Amino acid sequence: MAKILSSPWSIIRGSIAGTTYLANQFHQIVARARTAPVQPNTIYQTHIRSALNAASDVWANLTSAVRLQWEMYANGLEWPGPLGPYTCPGRQVFIAGRSLQEYVNTRGLAVPTMVTTAPSTMLGFYNLKNVGCSAPTTPGTGVAVSFTTETATDALVYAEISQAFSPARYRYKGPWESASAQASVVPMATSGLIEFLGLEDGAIYFIRLKAVADDAPPRVSCEYIVRCIGEVISP
């Protein structure tokens, strides 16, 4: 399916027949042959599929009343898109948060506390604050990303890092080093730090950070991408 804005076309995203439409830094509309996604079946992909299946099973066993509450909550969320803001169904919003918890738990990165109750429609996305690059506290060569959790709700915070780049690199959207993934459960109203060590001094790294409410309805945060410079921390 493709979505088109205006006539003849000023923006188009998606696929029609054998052609996929997208945009890049050079052109507003780019067309290429539609291809099937590569599925190398890595251990991390297996974990992701397992987490999605587990989250789907939990949703299927929720009461109709709770599912309706999630639908009402989801109606108040908006994601930005090239064709304007859009909303997602309550099922998709619930599974986004629950599957991240399941994935982190399966990999043994952290031990989240998972609940299924729906959040208040007034709460919106989970709000991480003060997200930015920070110096590591552990001796070695690395980078760190810092953040502050909400004042009333704990957070499960998940982070992945990119490969090393030259200082000329300022933008990056992936792929990410799945083996590098780290996660931590951080109490409410608390400043946290996730470090990545064993890196190159002076190289540029990008860290992808996202969170989901812990021991509370699993509201997801937006996704943050932070640019950092590898540095040496002396003992």
Structure description:
The protein is built from three helices and twelve strands, in the order ββββαααββββββββ. It has helices spanning 43-60, 64-74, 90-107, and strands at residues 2-5, 11-16, 19-22, 30-33, 129-134, 140-148, 154-161, 177-186, 191-197, 204-214, 224-229, 231-233. Strands 1-2-3-4 form a four-stranded antiparallel β-sheet, with no helix packed on it. Strands 5, 6, 9 and 12 form a four-stranded antiparallel β-sheet that branches. It has a four-stranded antiparallel β-sheet with strand order 8-7-10-11. The model has no long low-confidence stretch (mean pLDDT 90). The protein is globular and about 60 Å long. The protein is 20% helix and 33% strand. A hairpin with a 7-residue loop joins strand 3 (19-22) and strand 4 (30-33). With 235 residues, the protein is an alpha+beta fold. The chain folds into three domains: 2-33, no CATH class; 43-107, no CATH class; 129-233, Immunoglobulins (Immunoglobulin-like, Sandwich), CATH 2.60.40.
Task: Reconstruct the topology from this structure.
Elements: E1 2-5, E2 11-16, E3 19-22, E4 30-33, H1 43-60, H2 64-74, H3 90-107, E5 129-134, E6 140-148, E7 154-161, E8 177-186, E9 191-197, E10 204-214, E11 224-229, E12 231-233
Antiparallel strand pairs: 1-2, 2-3, 3-4, 5-6, 6-9, 6-12, 7-8, 7-10, 10-11
Helix pairs in contact: 1-3, 2-3
